[in-house]
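S2.1 Query sequence (Hexosyltransferase)
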Amino acid sequence: PAVAAVMRLGTVLGALRPALPLLLGLSLGCSLSLLRASWSHGAAEERCLAPGRPARPAPGALPEEAEGGLGPGHEDFKPRIVPYYRDPNKPYKKVLRTRYIQTELGFHERLFVAVLTSKATLNTLAVAVNKTVAHHFPRLLYFTGLRSTKVPHGMALVVHGDERPIWLMYETMNYIHQHFGSDYDWFYIMQDDTYAQAEQVKALVTHLSINQDVYLGRAEEFIGGDEQARYCHGGFGYLLSRSLLLKLHPHLDSCRNEILSVRPDEWLGRCIIDFLGITCVSQLQGQHYHTYELAKNTEPEKEEEEEFHAALAVHPVSDMTLMYRLHKQYSRIQLDRAYQEIQDLQMQIRNLTALTPAGEAGVTWPVGINAPFLPKSRFEVISWDYFTEQHLFSCPDGSPKCELSGASKADVSEIIVSALEQLNRRYQPLLRFSKRQLLNGYRRFDPTRGMEYTLDLLLEAVTQKGHSHVLAKRVSLVRPLSKVEIIPMPYVTEATRVQLVLPLTVQDLDYVANFLDMFAMNTLDTHDNALLTLLFVYHPYDAQRVGQVDVFAGVKAMVGELEKRYAEVKIPWISVKTEVPSQVKLMDIVSKKHPVDTLFFLASVWTEINMEFLNRCRMNTINNWQVFFPVHFQEFNPALVYRGEQTASSSTDFLRDGHFDRHSFAEACFYNSDYMTARTKLAADILDRDEVLESMEVFDVFLHYSGLHLFRAVEPGLVQKYALRSCNPRLSEELYHRCVLSNLEGLASRSHLAMALFEQEQANST
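Output structure tokens follow.
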């Protein structure tokens, strides 16, 4: 029996062995929980109270029952949901939102700059200020009492009508408060004989708090006044905060009547001190306002003092040449600092990379620039473009060889010069290199890092003793992507009415029904703000027989049915007789029949209109700023792609069996006013040679005769079914060639074409 009991116990333990860790874990967890509960209970009973402090209320008592309460700093805040309630007796008012979110949140622009000038220096020193630092400041205005007959171009000027210095300062402060007091946080006031380091001034205001009344500049003592009071010297510029300007404005009239002074900066400083009790300071919140006073006959290139290098403002600047020399010197100083900072960062990157698992092998070249893009398949490989000093072997028009000119030639010349400078900097004084010839050149654009170059140079190397030797050397260079900037764009909305223009020829009749059905379903049924105008292009032979047989009679009947179905909709049409349906000539006719503020969408009969694209047409087209030429998605020929199989229709196959047709410029979004402006310039250029219009499209008109941005981008909302386009041989050779290429590339992909040829060969062999 004992042996049997032992065997049964072993069997039970064997069955429980897999669950043994779980049982031990549960037991240990329960034991620790009991111990923790006992410790917490014991700690709760031991109360350590400060003398005179009331005891804590008993458990379960309400806060109001506690003697003395918890105090104002220990309230137990709980979220409370306030239900929305609108009085039905009061009329409903629509909430008007601001155009920009920063307006609704009360954000202000950072810095406004005012330059005090005069009639005598407006065309000299003020112009020098405008050319050196004006483009660095977000907003800059020039203030003067009187102006000369000729105002410099590109300068925003405010004329007060009086040259008296105190009056000029008084009117300037009033003007700034009235027009910009609620828009900016900081106001920097300087004279036209002051050189200010714009980037340093902008960096200064980013480190100052806007919650204080700030009067910052070069502090100077009043003549015969209080030793504690200081005013900011106007020659070196000074900074005012928005809060100080708002407090000062009510007292400006009193200051003008009560304070007598010859200098405008002393007058302003006395006004701020007397009515606000704020004196000028040269240091605030850990930031220093460094200045430098120029002596006569100073040579900026020879100034090596630390005070000169750290200065935010330099005064006095006597002439334009000195202003430009100062700007050149300070630009060189800033550039040297930037290069030194880059070298320090590169050294830190090398030191830190050595501690990583990859070690020194993880350091990319150049140090601090992103590593080259690594393709995951052969379709992602970025190709190199081959070039020499005279020719480029990857041309925009697809030709195998073209002359190197324009920006490409300047780019190649600059990169060769840079390569020689780097080689000489590295090997001098032992060797000095000069270029004999560029043997081979390669470049490619890597979107992760910038433009990459590989140059095979034939060089002549000269030693210190004068011995020369010709050698070939390969160098690699990178032009990295610089700081990305957001381009400010004018405000547009999606409420603009879109006027669709559809030119139709006899060859398009088979596709009109589908276009009208999609237009009715996606715009008329959804009440989208879009209208349609049809343009019937008659051949001269068809135009003569229109009384007997109208080739567009079926289309007009379909339009009549739509107008009956939608009583509020009218679809006008325009009839045109021509042998060569030039896009520009047709657009000229339509443009004259619509207002100048009309937003046109020039469509093709294969276009399937939808609300998504119409909204993008509205947002991407900006009056007097930008036109939009979408690249539609062209589906392949289903007979070649599917070869009798069922067409894929699932959402995962969207935009799969087709390509974006970059050869087509048939679709375009633009404003009528922009087209009329560009068309006027074109008419003045070609005079009466109307045959030139047959070789142009609307895209060419905007490209060559307007200063607008041309936005050309792929548009997934424009999907066109496969159709063999008819290419008119009467058009120009370029337009006809593009049409043929569009048809050929729209047949199928290379793999589909190869499979079709393979099946055809198999069928022929059997």
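DSSP finds 22 helices and 27 strands in the chain. Residues 103-328 form a domain with the Spore Coat Polysaccharide Biosynthesis Protein SpsA; Chain A fold (CATH 3.90.550.50).
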